[in-house]
Amino acid sequence: MASSPAPPAAPFALLILLVPLALVLAQQPLQTAAGNSDATALEAVFKEWRLHLPEDPCMNLVRESFAKTASINCSCSDLNRKECRITHLSVTGYRNITHIPVELFNLTELVSLDLSNNNLSGSIAPGIMNLTKLEIWRFNSNQLNGSFPSELSSLRNLQSLWMFDNNIDGSFPKFIANFTNLTDLRIYGMKLRGPIPKEFSKLVNLTYLMIGDLHGNDSSFDFIGDLANLSTLSLRKCGLSGMVPNITLHNLTYIDLRSNNLSGPIEQVLRYNEGLKYLYVGENKFNGSLPSERLQSLLALDVTYNPSVSGSLPTDRKWMINYIGTRLNARRSVDSENLSLLNCLDMEECNRKDFNIVLSSINCGGKEYIDPLQTVFSDDSTDLGAAGFRVYNNSKWVVSHVGADPFGNSTSIVNTNKPIYGTNMSDIYRTARTSTGSLWYYVVGLTSGKYTVQLFFAEIVIESESGRRLFDIDIQDQTFKKDFNIVEEAGGSWRATNITYEVTINNPTLKIHLYWNGRGTCCIPREGTYGPLVSAIRVFPSPDLKASPPPAPDRARQDEKRRGVVAGIAALCIAAAVISSSVVYLWWKWVSLVKHSKA
Ligand SMILES: *[C@@H]1O[C@H](CO)[C@@H](O)[C@H](O)[C@H]1NC(C)=O
Ligand SMILES: *[C@@H]1O[C@H](CO)[C@@H](O)[C@H](O)[C@H]1NC(C)=O
Ligand SMILES: *[C@@H]1O[C@H](CO)[C@@H](O)[C@H](O)[C@H]1NC(C)=O
Ligand SMILES: *[C@@H]1O[C@H](CO)[C@@H](O)[C@H](O)[C@H]1NC(C)=O
Ligand SMILES: *[C@@H]1O[C@H](CO)[C@@H](O)[C@H](O)[C@H]1NC(C)=O
Ligand SMILES: *[C@@H]1O[C@H](CO)[C@@H](O)[C@H](O)[C@H]1NC(C)=O
Ligand SMILES: *[C@@H]1O[C@H](CO)[C@@H](O)[C@H](O)[C@H]1NC(C)=O
Ligand SMILES: *[C@@H]1O[C@H](CO)[C@@H](O)[C@H](O)[C@H]1NC(C)=O
Ligand SMILES: *[C@@H]1O[C@H](CO)[C@@H](O)[C@H](O)[C@H]1NC(C)=O
Ligand SMILES: *[C@@H]1O[C@H](CO)[C@@H](O)[C@H](O)[C@H]1NC(C)=O
Ligand SMILES: *[C@@H]1O[C@H](CO)[C@@H](O)[C@H](O)[C@H]1NC(C)=O
Ligand SMILES: *[C@@H]1O[C@H](CO)[C@@H](O)[C@H](O)[C@H]1NC(C)=O
């Protein structure tokens, strides 16, 4: 795992190596092997979890399945293993483990405690303060709630702290700024309130920093300037605002600042490191143009929805970029039909008459597919890598995606050969599009009216019950689903399900946004397994109201209206002219008649 922090200190490793030797030399019974007090405490813990404690807990790894494991390591102060203390405890992936027995806090020599991917609920017990030797603490992907207890502030030796994907609320704990040995901090997908304490500038040993999903809009980015060892920085949706500082961080290769309120020249972020590989700054307020000399090292760039970013892109190489929602003049390279679709999508000029779509379907991540009712699900098999979009001019769909896990392979398309249950159109579910960030589908040129959006899903990556994929869905910028869980909806993996949403469409573009919100497991079955996954989408007029769509205020219609008004005015003028000339004629006639009669 690329993200592994510093391994436990070398002396422990040596002791661990010596343990088997000791066992051969002196066949000690277990109870004495782990040291009396620790052995009793551990026994009590495992009893409450109803887990089988191996014969010699210091020696055996219990692996029930890929994701469900229990392992314990010890440190013994003598070759006879009379005085052994437990230093490492890792019990992960058990969805039936819901609490931490208090006896666990008696294991005061613990250096590493990993209880990730279980189902722990309630608040973090203050007893944790007794584990002052902890260097690695992983409680990610549980159901813990309450706020961070202040007792935690005694864990000052922590090097790695993973607490993402829980329900912890309250304000972001300031005391973490005192954990100056931290190299790896990951806190996101919870209910915490910002700001990120400015004292975090003291955490100079940080190499991996991932914070996200904070409430409030008051974080400053300035603390980052002192963190010279950073290689991975993700501050997605942290309520960061203000100008980005002018700094240099030589080791930084991955930056994700999506969904904040940051402003200033985009160029400044690109100056952080010449070797920057991934830059995600979508949904901010950056401005200025992209300096081409600074883009050489980049593998992926996301500037989506920064309306003031402009300039042009170097055309000398193929790379992964997504610039939907900007003023970037990269469109020269796009052919004219695609360009008119893109312009429509960005609400620039858009003549809906060019499209006039009423229904449309797409096989996300797959080839064209025709279902038993002859519905054509159009092709969407372009791999978008770590950032990019694709205009399907024939079907009038646009697919757009940004996101790459910093530690794993992020593929934007997944597939399986296994059968899919609960459907007669298996093939549509065997390929799917996925993203560790944001995934948008747009239909361009829909006639105004009321539509049903039908989304098709089947979980084809996560098999283990220890894994959990959660994501949000917005349609036309309205929240449709929060923490959507395919497996729960379908009743298992490799099972098909579909959900529908009714939407009234007034502008020319239907926008479906599926995105990761920091929730769910990160790494089952492998790193980078999280975020939205979708198999197909169908859009059709809602049965009741499909006739007589309401008039729409789009530009084409406005033009029509204007022409109408002009024509109307012209008609009125003509009418007026006719009437007035006839009045004049009649008057003249009458006058002449009168004259005649007088004469
Ligand atoms: C845990 O430690 C407390 C004192 O710190 C002691 O009273 C208790 O017996 C211990 N429990 C176990 C199971 O060792
Ligand atoms: C949890 O499940 C495991 C099997 O995966 C079982 O051995 C254990 O007894 C269960 N624990 C509880 C508390 O039910
Ligand atoms: C315990 O030690 C073994 C052998 O050195 C190692 O494979 C295992 O990962 C260690 N377990 C933990 C929880 O560190
Ligand atoms: C997790 O625990 C809660 C109770 O705290 C329970 O309702 C839920 O079903 C559990 N989840 C799983 C997957 O077992
Ligand atoms: C934690 O340590 C304190 C003293 O340092 C002790 O009084 C308390 O019993 C311990 N708590 C647990 C749960 O072991
Ligand atoms: C940090 O690490 C250093 C060296 O590894 C160690 O001496 C120190 O005790 C640790 N703890 C704190 C709080 O600095
Ligand atoms: C950090 O540690 C210092 C002492 O080293 C202490 O005065 C301060 O209160 C601590 N900060 C927090 C937020 O706990
Ligand atoms: C940073 O880590 C080094 C060892 O890797 C350690 O010596 C140093 O004390 C740490 N810095 C701080 C501020 O704790
Ligand atoms: C950057 O990374 C290298 C090794 O990858 C390391 O030696 C160096 O200390 C890191 N920090 C800075 C500030 O360059
Ligand atoms: C940023 O800092 C560099 C030197 O580190 C300086 O040359 C440059 O002018 C600064 N840019 C701004 C906009 O302040
Ligand atoms: C990434 O993919 C390559 C080839 O597909 C594979 O060999 C490697 O193990 C993968 N790495 C991770 C972290 O999944
Ligand atoms: C959509 O799901 C419903 C059940 O919720 C099912 O009856 C229907 O057949 C599904 N539609 C398709 C096209 O799979």
Q: Helices, strands, pairings?
A:
Elements (H helix, E strand, L loop, with lengths): L9 H16 L4 H4 L2 H13 L12 E3 L5 E8 L7 E9 L19 E3 L6 E2 L13 E3 L4 E2 L15 E3 L6 E3 L12 E4 L3 E3 L14 E4 L20 E3 L6 E3 L10 E3 L4 E5 H5 L7 E3 L4 E5 L10 E3 L5 E3 L9 E3 L13 H10 L14 E3 L6 E2 L5 E2 L9 E6 L4 E6 L10 E3 L10 H5 E4 L3 E7 L4 E9 L13 E5 L2 E7 L1 H5 L6 E9 L3 E7 L17 E2 L1 E6 L13 H44 L1
Parallel strand pairs: 3-4, 4-6, 5-7, 6-8, 8-10, 9-11, 10-12, 12-13, 13-15, 14-16, 15-17, 16-18, 17-19, 18-20, 19-21
Antiparallel strand pairs: 1-2, 2-3, 22-36, 23-24, 25-26, 26-29, 27-28, 28-35, 29-34, 30-33, 30-36, 31-32, 31-34
The chain binds 2-acetamido-2-deoxy-beta-D-glucopyranose (12 copies).
Overview of the molecule:
Helices cover about 15% and strands about 25% of the residues. With about 600 residues, the protein is α/β, with parallel strands linked by helices. Residues about 1-30, about 545-575 and about 590-595 have low confidence and may be disordered. It binds 2-acetamido-2-deoxy-beta-D-glucopyranose (12 copies). One 2-acetamido-2-deoxy-beta-D-glucopyranose binds next to loops. One 2-acetamido-2-deoxy-beta-D-glucopyranose binds near residues 180, 181 and 205.
